[in-house]
Amino acid sequence: MALENFISTFIVVLLPAFLISLSLYAIRVIKGPSVTDMVLAIDCITYDLCFLMGLLSILFKIGFLMVAALALALWAYVLDVYVAKYLEAREVGD
Fold first, then answer.
1. Does the predicted TM-score (pTM) go above 0.70?
2. What is the pLDDT of residues 69-80, one digit of tens each?
3. Are 92 and 80 within 8 A, CB to CB?
């Protein structure tokens, strides 16, 4: 029970900071000067969401949320690989 109380207070305390960072990341995605800045902001959003889903998984004792968080993190990694391949091909001229 102590872990659940700690996690619930942790979520309540960090939720405003999480929302502020999420809005700043969204601005970076929309107004990013380059593709790499946009991808980095999307990565930050997805990994923050994965962390929040992990905390909620522990709080609500739902294991499926952790599986969904891992799947979301893997999709973010696939996005990174795809964009890196695209940028590398564009530089080389293929």
1. yes
2. 999 999 999 988
3. no
Q: What is the pLDDT of residues 1-31, one digit of tens each?
A: 687 788 788 888 888 898 899 999 999 999 9
CA-CA-CA-CA torsion for 66, 69, 70, 71, nearest 10 degrees? 120
Distance in angstroms (rounded) separating the CA atoms of residues 78 and 85: 11
The C-alpha R_g of the chain, in whole angstroms, comes to: 17
Which amino acid makes up residue 5?
A: N
Distance, in Å, from the CA atom of 14 to the CA atom of 39, rounded to the nearest integer, reads 24
Which residues have C-beta within 8 Å of that of residue 38, sequence separation ≥ 6? 28, 29, 32
Report the 10 Å Cβ neighbour count for 39.
20
